[in-house]
C-alpha cells in the first residue's frame, strides 16, 4: 500500500494541509499564548477574535449583505432539518420542498412534524439520478427548500432560476457544496451546511440567515432553537465548539488566500472536467447520473461489469485512493472532490482508472 493518500472521502473530508498544520500547532500552543486552543474559555480575548474572523470571512467570501447573519451552531445539518421549520413554519402553514435525494427526504420528514409540507418535484422514481427541471409551487408557501448538492447520488442543481422565479423565501441545504462555486448567496434567506466537507471540522454547522424572515411563527421556541438568540449572542449562547470553529476560520482564511470562491470554482471545474472526461472515455465505467446534472463535488459511477468492482476497489486501495466506495444506496464508487482536494489527486485517480480500463482491453 502506498504511503501517500489521496482522500476522496465524502465527509468528514479532506481539508487543506496548511490547516492541518496550523490546527496541530494551536493544540500545543495557541498564538504563542502558552495555552492550547483546547483549554481556553470561549469568552476570552484569545477566542473572541477567532469567532469574529470566522464570521467576517464567511460574510466576505459569500458577499453577504447587511440583512444576512452568519452563525456557527452545533447538531450538524441534521439539526437544521427541524430547527428551520420550527423557526419558519407554523402548524397551519405550508412549506414547499424539492426532493432530490436522501438528505432532502430527511429534511421533508422533519418539517412534517411542525406544519404542512408539499413536495413540488421528485426524482425518487429513478433513484434520484437526475435533477427535476420544472416545478410549480403553491404561492402561499412560507418557504421553498432545496438541497443544492446531493452528496449520496452525485447530482447538483446547476441553475437556480426555477427557485428565484418563485419569489418565495429560499432555504438551502448546502452541506456538500458550500463555497465551492459562485452564486448569489443573498438570494437565499437561509443556508445551512455541516462544516465537515468544505469548510472545516465536524462539530459545527454554518447557518446563514436573513434576519427579516425570523420571529414570524406563533409557536413558543426553546431558547437554543430560536435563531434570534444565537444572533444576539454572536453564536455564543452556550459554549461553542471552540476547536471546530477555529478550524473553520483557518479553512476560510485558506480559501480567501486562494482567491476566494471564484478561484476555487475554477479549480473545482478543472478537477471535475478531468474526472468526468476520463470516466466517459472508457465504457468499462458508467456514470450513474444524468450528465447535465453531474455534481462537481461527488461523482458516482459503477462498472459496466459489476464483477470487476472488487478488483478495481482493491487497486484503488493499493494505490492510496481513500474513500472511493459508493454509498450503499447507489453502490459502485463515489469520488468526492471537495475544495481542498488537490488537482494532483484527481490526476492520480484518473491514471489508475485509465490503466485499469486499458488492462481490461
Ligand atoms: N445534508 C447533506 C447534503 C449532507 O451531505 C449531509 C451529510 N453527509 C447532511 C445533510 C447531514 O449532515 P450532518 O451529519 O452534519 O447532520
UniProtKB/TrEMBL annotation:
<feature type="binding site">
    <location>
        <begin position="77"/>
        <end position="78"/>
    </location>
    <ligand>
        <name>pyridoxal 5'-phosphate</name>
    </ligand>
</feature>
<feature type="binding site">
    <location>
        <position position="196"/>
    </location>
    <ligand>
        <name>pyridoxal 5'-phosphate</name>
    </ligand>
</feature>
<keyword id="KW-0028">Amino-acid biosynthesis</keyword>
<dbReference type="InterPro" id="IPR022278">
    <property type="entry name" value="Pser_aminoTfrase"/>
</dbReference>
<dbReference type="GO" id="GO:0005737">
    <property type="term" value="C:cytoplasm"/>
</dbReference>
<dbReference type="Pfam" id="PF00266">
    <property type="entry name" value="Aminotran_5"/>
</dbReference>
<feature type="domain" description="Aminotransferase class V">
    <location>
        <begin position="7"/>
        <end position="347"/>
    </location>
</feature>
<keyword id="KW-0032">Aminotransferase</keyword>
<dbReference type="GO" id="GO:0008615">
    <property type="term" value="P:pyridoxine biosynthetic process"/>
</dbReference>
<keyword id="KW-0664">Pyridoxine biosynthesis</keyword>
<dbReference type="GO" id="GO:0004648">
    <property type="term" value="F:O-phospho-L-serine:2-oxoglutarate aminotransferase activity"/>
</dbReference>
<dbReference type="InterPro" id="IPR000192">
    <property type="entry name" value="Aminotrans_V_dom"/>
</dbReference>
<keyword id="KW-0963">Cytoplasm</keyword>
<feature type="modified residue" description="N6-(pyridoxal phosphate)lysine">
    <location>
        <position position="197"/>
    </location>
</feature>
<comment type="pathway">
    <text>Amino-acid biosynthesis; L-serine biosynthesis; L-serine from 3-phospho-D-glycerate: step 2/3.</text>
</comment>
<comment type="similarity">
    <text>Belongs to the class-V pyridoxal-phosphate-dependent aminotransferase family. SerC subfamily.</text>
</comment>
<comment type="function">
    <text>Catalyzes the reversible conversion of 3-phosphohydroxypyruvate to phosphoserine and of 3-hydroxy-2-oxo-4-phosphonooxybutanoate to phosphohydroxythreonine.</text>
</comment>
<keyword id="KW-0663">Pyridoxal phosphate</keyword>
<feature type="binding site">
    <location>
        <position position="103"/>
    </location>
    <ligand>
        <name>pyridoxal 5'-phosphate</name>
    </ligand>
</feature>
<comment type="subunit">
    <text>Homodimer.</text>
</comment>
<dbReference type="InterPro" id="IPR015421">
    <property type="entry name" value="PyrdxlP-dep_Trfase_major"/>
</dbReference>
<feature type="binding site">
    <location>
        <position position="43"/>
    </location>
    <ligand>
        <name>L-glutamate</name>
    </ligand>
</feature>
<dbReference type="GO" id="GO:0030170">
    <property type="term" value="F:pyridoxal phosphate binding"/>
</dbReference>
<dbReference type="InterPro" id="IPR020578">
    <property type="entry name" value="Aminotrans_V_PyrdxlP_BS"/>
</dbReference>
<keyword id="KW-0718">Serine biosynthesis</keyword>
<feature type="binding site">
    <location>
        <begin position="238"/>
        <end position="239"/>
    </location>
    <ligand>
        <name>pyridoxal 5'-phosphate</name>
    </ligand>
</feature>
<comment type="pathway">
    <text>Cofactor biosynthesis; pyridoxine 5'-phosphate biosynthesis; pyridoxine 5'-phosphate from D-erythrose 4-phosphate: step 3/5.</text>
</comment>
<protein>
    <recommendedName>
        <fullName>Phosphoserine aminotransferase</fullName>
        <ecNumber>2.6.1.52</ecNumber>
    </recommendedName>
</protein>
<dbReference type="InterPro" id="IPR015424">
    <property type="entry name" value="PyrdxlP-dep_Trfase"/>
</dbReference>
<feature type="binding site">
    <location>
        <position position="173"/>
    </location>
    <ligand>
        <name>pyridoxal 5'-phosphate</name>
    </ligand>
</feature>
<keyword id="KW-0808">Transferase</keyword>
<feature type="binding site">
    <location>
        <position position="151"/>
    </location>
    <ligand>
        <name>pyridoxal 5'-phosphate</name>
    </ligand>
</feature>
<dbReference type="GO" id="GO:0006564">
    <property type="term" value="P:L-serine biosynthetic process"/>
</dbReference>
<dbReference type="InterPro" id="IPR015422">
    <property type="entry name" value="PyrdxlP-dep_Trfase_small"/>
</dbReference>
Amino acid at each position: 500500500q502506498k504511503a501517500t493518500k489521496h482522500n476522496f472521502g465524502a465527509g468528514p473530508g479532506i481539508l487543506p494541509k496548511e490547516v492541518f498544520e496550523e490546527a496541530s500547532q494551536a493544540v500545543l500552543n495557541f498564538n504563542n499564548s502558552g495555552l492550547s486552543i483546547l483549554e481556553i474559555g470561549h469568552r476570552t480575548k484569545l477566542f473572541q477574535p477567532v469567532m469574529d474572523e470566522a464570521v467576517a470571512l464567511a460574510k466576505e467570501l459569500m458577499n453577504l449583505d447587511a440583512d444576512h447573519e452568519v452563525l456557527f451552531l452545533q447538531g450538524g445539518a441534521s439539526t437544521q432539518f427541524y430547527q428551520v421549520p420550527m423557526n419558519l413554519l407554523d402548524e397551519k402553514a405550508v412549506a414547499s420542498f424539492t426532493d432530490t435525494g436522501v438528505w432532502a427526504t430527511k429534511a421533508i420528514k422533519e418539517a412534517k412534524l411542525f406544519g404542512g409540507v408539499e413536495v413540488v418535484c421528485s426524482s425518487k422514481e429513478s433513484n434520484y439520478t437526475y435533477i427535476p427541471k420544472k416545478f410549480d409551487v403553491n404561492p402561499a408557501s412560507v418557504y421553498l427548500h432545496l438541497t443544492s448538492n446531493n452528496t449520496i447520488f452525485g447530482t447538483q442543481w446547476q441553475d437556480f432560476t426555477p427557485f428565484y422565479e418563485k419569489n418565495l423565501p429560499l432555504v438551502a441545504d448546502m452541506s456538500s457544496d458550500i463555497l465551492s462555486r459562485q452564486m448569489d448567496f443573498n438570494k437565499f434567506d437561509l443556508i445551512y451546511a455541516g462544516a465537515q466537507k468544505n469548510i472545516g471540522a465536524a462539530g459545527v454547522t454554518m447557518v446563514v440567515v436573513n434576519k427579516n424572515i425570523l420571529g414570524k411563527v406563533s409557536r413558543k421556541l426553546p431558547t437554543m432553537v430560536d435563531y434570534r438568540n444565537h444572533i444576539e449572542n454572536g453564536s455564543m449562547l452556550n459554549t461553542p465548539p471552540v476547536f471546530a470553529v477555529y478550524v473553520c476560520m483557518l479553512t476560510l482564511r485558506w480559501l480567501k488566500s486562494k482567491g476566494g470562491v471564484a478561484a476555487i470554482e475554477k479549480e473545482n471545474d478543472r478537477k471535475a472536467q478531468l474526472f468526468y472526461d476520463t470516466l466517459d472515455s472508457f465504457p468499462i465505467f458508467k456514470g450513474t447520473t444524468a450528465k447535465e446534472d453531474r455534481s462537481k463535488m461527488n461523482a458516482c459511477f459503477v462498472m459496466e461489469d459489476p464483477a470487476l468492482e472488487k478488483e478495481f476497489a482493491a487497486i484503488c486501495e493499493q494505490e492510496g485512493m481513500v474513500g472511493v466506495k459508493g454509498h450503499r444506496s447507489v453502490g459502485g464508487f463515489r469520488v468526492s472532490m471537495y475544495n481542498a482536494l488537490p488537482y494532483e489527486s484527481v490526476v492520480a485517480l484518473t491514471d489508475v482508472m485509465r490503466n485499469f480500463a486499458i488492462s481490461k482491453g
